[in-house]
Amino acid sequence: MLQLPLWKRIIIWGLCALGLLTALPNAFYSRAERHNDAVTAAERAGFETEAQAADRALWPSWLPSNLVNLGLDLRGGAHLLAEVQVADVYKARMDALWPEMRRALADARGDIGGIRRAPSDPAELRIQIEKPEAMAKAVEVANGLASNVISLTGVGQKDLDVTAEGNELIVRLSEAERAATDDRTMQQSLEIIRRRVDEVGTREPTIQRQGTERILIQVPGIGSASELKSLIGTTAQLTFQPVVGRGTDGNAIAKPGTQILPSIDEKGVFYTLEDTPVVTGEELTDARPDFDQNGRPAVSFRFNPTGARKFGDYTAANVGQLFAIVLDNEVISAPRINQHIPGGSGIITGNFTVETSTNLAVLLRAGALPAKMNFLEERTIGPELGQDSIDAGRIAAVVGFVAVVAFMIASYGLFGVFATVALTLNMAMIFGILSTIGATLTLPGIAGIVLTIGMAVDVLIFERIREELRTAKGPARAIELGYEKAMSAIVDANITTLLTALILFFLGSGPVKGFAVTLVVGLVTSVFTAIYVTRAMVVAWYDRKRPKTITV
Amino acid sequence: MAYRLKLVPEKTNIDFFRWAWLTFWGSVAMVVAAILLTVVMGLNFGIDFKGGTTIRTESTKAVDVGAYRAAVAPLGLGDVSITEVFDPTFREDQHVAMLRIQAQEGAEAITPEVIAKVEGALQTVDPSITFPSVESVGPKVSGELIKTAVLSVLAGTAAICVYIWLRFEWQFAIGAVVALVHDIALTIGIFSLFQLKFDLTIIAALLTILGYSINDTVVVFDRLRENLIKYKTTPLRDLCNLSVNETLSRTVMTSGTTLIALIALLIFGGDVIRGFVFAMTWGVIVGTYSSVYVAKNVVLMLGVKRDWSKKDDGAAGTQFANVK
């Protein structure tokens, strides 16, 4: 009755061992961190330097090496919440559409007469027409310029909305196209920010889309929010360069006038390129995911007139050659020139999926941020302040732990010792789980852990055993009843706390969210340790000693 | 027999409901007072809820609030509050102050140039000054944060109410919710009384207090539910008393360990987190009080349907007629 079956005991102690093992790297934080950094750096570069190898050796690779991420308030760094002015892009689209529209309408001059662009809302195009009676024709012409929306939800819809009002023709982006454009703008902004931030090589930056138009950027270890802002503001360097050769040796010495750059997609592949670009990203006006004649995913792009001329001349002279598209000194792709491309627009085919072609289009447009960003929230936390908080949190945790342990042992004797062991395992498991799921520990998170120390469930059980001892037949029965009867209180009490923690998690942000995560993890582990770990210890002890009477 | 620290004797027989009317109306009066206080004095909202910028300064020289103020005043930033921060964990030569600049007209967040100007002005007063943290929140976000905060507290209370209603009886749910309102009101009230900074982390603390208080309430409710089944005829008042007495030792122990941990944080946890921990400590105290004196009182007043085999002989209109 009191005895736990062997398989249960194995699982219980196995989970405890796993908790200890996964928590272990956190005890050697800087060592494990250097190891992890070296491994990721080497993976990214495709080869390993001597210093990296030395760092990697600091932590044995057969041990788990996941660490608890420290939140900004503990590590120091910058936090930005930016709102992307997605509507900026509508204006750019309308302005780009105007020359084309003018040409098309001019072709129908015989029917509709002269045209003139009227002042309008930036997100639309208003065109005054000389002969309003021929409006139907004008609408037809304008509609002829619309193309299909390329997005999952907007299938079968046109990208332009053409309406007439008196003698004015009004062209807007359709609902579906607006949604698709917003989405592209956000993706592009995210991608650009990510590339900019990655360049500084800081670890674990958080770059997340929040809601429809916001981006949260958290970069640990950066000096200040304004530094981060200027970093994001710089533009990417996109170039189109002729390919001289392709190889796998990244350390070869480049001949004068050429350079050797790594490929983004293919690991270990390096391209030798001519130094002088044929065209640069400043001359690119658009790039978007598309499909080639055979229906395979591709990327279409368009240059401005000067870019188009240079691009046309070069492709005419170099059919059959490889042509590299380089972004910030990495080769995005190196397609073969199949034919002369005169119109300044073209299509890159290759081994794309819809996803990779979308990404490439995003990267191609990644030159500058597509829309202005307003910063709604910015926070800078200095690393010293973070370190102070860690130190303070550590002292508080140790003092709290020791005091609680002393109190528990004074109150429950041997059972208090069991509870102490369980509490230690509980702490280890919290850190183990937080490391494994890659959660972020914030200052309120530390408070959550300290709270878990205090709210230990064992008390509930011990008190119940005490009570049962007064009435029940013997110690074994009392222990069993104690666990049994405390159960409903434990379940109800913890589920209600869990409910509030979950609400905190879903509604909270930043440090509050971090607190919710530690609280949830702490609740789960403390229930586990109280119900199973303490119990396994109590049972093992009882089994060996078989005391006639026990005092809790 | 081994020595045991016992804060509560093995068997207690305290009549917790002897002064039921006094404790209940006393609690009501406290809640009303807290609400009035909050309405009259208002809360010292942090930038999370009000927008604006805070700059934390640190220097090896003593803080001279007057000099700081004089340095910043010519910049014309409107309301700037400067307070010195004291903390037992600070080093001997660590002098910290907080500057708070109100949200600027027409700007979503304060511009870096303004912050640079403020920092420059302060550095002329004290060249050794550093700025460990600068935080700026625009009015747009702060408005949303208030909404989310209120929503999360309401959602938390509602979720608890529904759960208790499902697991116990509706009287228990009402008792629990009244107790929670009591805890939240008193916590907000004390923040208003001492004009402590009220920011996002305090909302997190409030929700944790909800969780803790309900945890405590549920343990006593659980015992009451058990006793209701065990003693079918004992008056409800006696059963409430019995349940509280039986769980008293547990309540004191749990509150004791939690308070020990929290007080450790309060003393050693540093000033950044102090407001948060203070809210929590206070919440644990009022939460423990309210599970006995508020939640139980309400259940006692509402009464609990005892015998499920008998038909309810309640007032007219409370039951559907059995029409043939």
Quick recap:
The complex is a heterodimer of chains A (552) and B (324). Chain A has 552 residues and is an alpha+beta fold.
In one word, what is the shape of chain B? elongated
Q: Return the CATH class of the largest domain in chain A.
A: Mainly Alpha
Compute the number of helices of chain B. 9
Write down the CATH class of the largest domain in chain B.
Mainly Alpha
Could you explain how this protein is built, in words?
The complex is a heterodimer of chains A (552) and B (324). By secondary structure, chain A is an alpha+beta fold. Chain A folds into three domains: 231 residues, Multidrug efflux transporter AcrB transmembrane domain (Multidrug efflux transporter AcrB transmembrane fold, Up-down Bundle), CATH 1.20.1640.10; 93 residues; 109 residues, Gyrase A, domain 2, CATH 3.30.1360. Chain A contains 17 helices and 19 strands. In chain A, strands 9, 10, 11, 12, 15 and 16 form a six-stranded antiparallel beta sheet that branches. The relative contact order of chain A is 0.11. The model of chain A has no long low-confidence stretch (mean pLDDT 83). Chain B folds into two domains: 186 residues, Multidrug efflux transporter AcrB transmembrane domain (Multidrug efflux transporter AcrB transmembrane fold, Up-down Bundle), CATH 1.20.1640.10; 86 residues, 2-Layer Sandwich (Alpha-Beta Plaits), CATH 3.30.70. Chain B is elongated and about 80 Å long. Chains A and B meet through helix 9, strand 18, helix 12, helix 14 and helix 15 of A and helix 4, strand 5, helix 5, helix 7 and helix 8 of B. Strand 18 of chain A pairs antiparallel with strand 5 of chain B, so a sheet runs across the interface.
